[in-house]
Design a protein that fits this description.
187 residues
Length: 187
């Protein structure tokens, strides 16, 4: 099972890399042959992006923005998948989930795709409350997006909460892609 998961992960990374390289190649040579599209997840698979503590003024820390960039790429590659942003811990009246949703919306992810889990105060609660939300919206499995050093614990907690994690994605994997990624307007 673990080998199959690792293979799936490598295939998705290869598909994303190929798609981005093909897009850059096609832009440079408009008459080039079309490249294969990435392998997206469907509507039964939720993209779950884990929060990270906000600054006292409600702003986002670089670690959270990195997670959002990885989640944004997964959302773009899987346009039929719902996106769950999870995290409570409000600062200056803003929860992690709300700040994350606003960031994604500002970069073109449709608001109707987003599902906010704004009550969790820990990774264990992220897992439990996201599992409940997944049941409500009809998702059977999830792509888990978090930081590389947080992934083993998050994966264990989501699995314990009954979430079938079919894939994972971390910000570190963005560095492996051959071209810069557009993340929409920065303001």
């Amino acid at each position: 099972m673990r080998a199959l998961s690792a293979l799936s992960h490598r295939l998705r990374n290869a598909a994303a890399t190929t798609a981005l390289a093909c897009a850059a190649f096609t832009a440079a040579a408009p008459d080039a042959t079309a490249c294969l599209p990435p392998l997206p997840h469907g509507p039964d698979t939720a993209v779950v992006i884990l929060g990270y503590g906000l600054l006292p003024d409600g702003g986002m820390r670089p670690e959270l923005i990195d997670r959002l960039r990885a989640g944004y790429l997964e959302a773009v590659l899987s346009p039929a998948s719902p996106v769950i942003v999870t995290g409570g811990n409000p600062r200056a009246g803003v929860t992690e989930a709300r700040a994350m949703a606003d960031w994604l919306i500002a970069r073109g992810i449709p608001e109707q795709r987003l599902h906010l889990e704004s009550a969790a105060r820990s990774t264990a609660e992220n897992a439990e409350l996201s599992a409940e939300l997944m049941t409500e919206i009809g998702s059977r499995d999830a792509v888990l997006v978090t930081s590389a050093d947080h992934l083993p614990r998050a994966l264990a907690l989501f699995t314990a909460a009954g979430v079938e994690v079919c894939d994972t994605y971390t910000p570190d994997e963005l560095a492996e892609l051959p071209t810069p990624l557009p993340f929409g307007p920065l303001s």
